[in-house]
Write a structure and sequence with these properties.
With 175 residues, the protein is α+β, with helices and mostly antiparallel strands. Helix content is 49%, strand content 18%. The protein has 7 helices and 7 strands, in the order βααβαααβαββαββ. It starts with a strand and ends with a strand.
């Protein structure tokens, strides 16, 4: 168990994204949150990362990857600084800061962090490393939205790749 806490703004975005898919999915998300000890969500409050990430995995297992992928995309839309970014590096830098700001007591070892590098073949490689503990569908949604808000990239140009020993998930971005 860690002492990491996530902003209610992101928990609220998760609930809202499920509601956009279907009112039934939103109800299920709220039920899972309550079952895990997160009852009423206030955007200005903070909630246990352990409980929230457990909920995310349960939702992905029960409701499906598409719901958590949409939730990942929705999480990125709450980052106001991300709109029509000129480079993927710039997008990831803003994403890194948002990751730090989304948590109380942030540490990459407990909550994970982003890494970006340009590959020799011209593709960009982005990975979460450290204590990133969200499910794959959710993570892929985040990556697709990073591509969607960056000039010259599209969500369809994102594909998963084999993570390195210190990474949880990794993706290639084709411009």
């Amino acid at each position: 168990m860690s002492n990491q806490e996530i902003s209610g703004q992101f928990v609220s975005a998760f609930i809202a994204s499920a509601g956009e898919v279907s009112p039934v999915f939103e109800r299920k998300v709220r039920e899972y949150l309550e079952k895990n000890g997160i009852e009423s969500v206030e955007p200005a409050a903070f909630y246990s990362l352990d409980k929230f990430s457990k909920t995310m995995h349960q939702v992905e297992d029960d409701v499906g990857t598409m719901t958590t992928m949409e939730a990942g995309r929705e999480m990125i839309t709450v980052i106001e600084e991300l709109s029509a970014m000129s480079s993927l590096e710039e997008t990831i830098d803003v994403g890194k800061q948002a990751q730090r700001d989304a948590y109380k007591n942030f540490s990459a070892e407990d909550a994970g962090q982003l890494r970006h590098e340009q590959q020799d073949d011209g593709t960009d490689r982005v990975a979460y490393y450290g204590g990133w503990r969200y499910p794959e569908g959710f993570t892929e949604g985040i990556m697709k939205e990073f591509a969607a808000v960056t000039n010259g990239y599209a969500a369809s140009g994102v594909e998963s790749t084999t993570p390195r020993h210190d990474e949880v998930f990794a993706y290639l971005f084709q411009a």
